[in-house]
Amino acid sequence: MRIAITGTPGVGKTTISKVLRDRLGIKVIDITEAVKKYKLYTEKDEDMDSYVIDFEKLEKFIDEIEEKEKTIILDGHVSHLLNPDYIIVLRCNPEIIKERLEKRGYKPKKVLENIQAEILDVCLCESKGKVYEIDTTNRDVENIVDEIIEAIKHKKERKGVVDWTEKYFDYLTLEIK
Q1: Which cysteine pairs are joined by S-S bonds?
Q2: What's the predicted TM-score (pTM) here?
Q3: How confident is the model at residue 177 (pLDDT cuts 50, 70, 90)?
Q4: Does 173 show up as a binding residue in the annotation?
Q5: Is 2 annotated in some ligand binding site?
Q6: Residue 58 has what pLDDT?
Q7: How far apart are CA 67 and CA 176, in angstroms?
Q8: How far apart are CA 35 and CA 39, in angstroms?
Q9: 42 annotated ligand binder
């Protein structure tokens, strides 16, 4: 079983995935790290300081791991595009995402792009199949993990519970060159 933990950068995917790994003993594949380490990309986008993923190579890489593991967690903001059986979409207040990404040293253009993606529900809208959406804003990690475990156990589906558009609409009209 492939479980995708997806969401805009800065929502808490890696933190949540690590706790799930520790509590459930499930193999976690950090998509970003795997793409870099195993050169599963076609090029590096210097402007956005990111890699253009070769999805064919990445899919093959995941398939090989999945042959050995009964269940895997795919941790990454594109994990919902990798044929998961179940998708957890983590959401977070755009202001918190902004702070986290700036702390990580993201360029202003990349910060804005990610804030806009969160406001517009990009990861949620791209997610097809069984989807469970969770707002992580100001929540305890253990509480979030408990909710995820319960959702997976009962194959719960929930989406459309978070809407940042009205409160953060002004971010959608900004542009950084």
Answers
A1: none
A2: 0.93
A3: low
A4: no
A5: no
A6: 98
A7: 44
A8: 5
A9: no
- What is the C-alpha to C-alpha distance for residues 43 and 1, in angstroms, rounded to an integer? 30
User: How is residue 97 written in tokens?
Assistant: 């995402």
Check the annotation: does 10 bind a ligand. yes
Dist CA 73 CA 84 (whole Å) = 9
Fold of 2-93+122-161: Rossmann fold (3.40.50)
pLDDT per residue as tens digits for the range 24-70: 999 999 999 999 999 999 999 888 778 999 999 999 999 999 999 98
Q: What gap in Å lies between CA 63 and CA 2, rounded to an integer?
A: 10
Q: In the numeric block, which tokens belong to residue 95?
A: 């202001």
List the domain boundaries for the chain: 2-93+122-161
C-alpha distances in Å from residue 18, one per residue of 29, 37, 61: 10, 19, 20
Tell me the one-letter amino acid at 14: T
Tell me: is residue 160 an annotated ligand-binding position: no
What is the Cα–Cα distance from 72 to 65, expressed in whole angstroms? 8
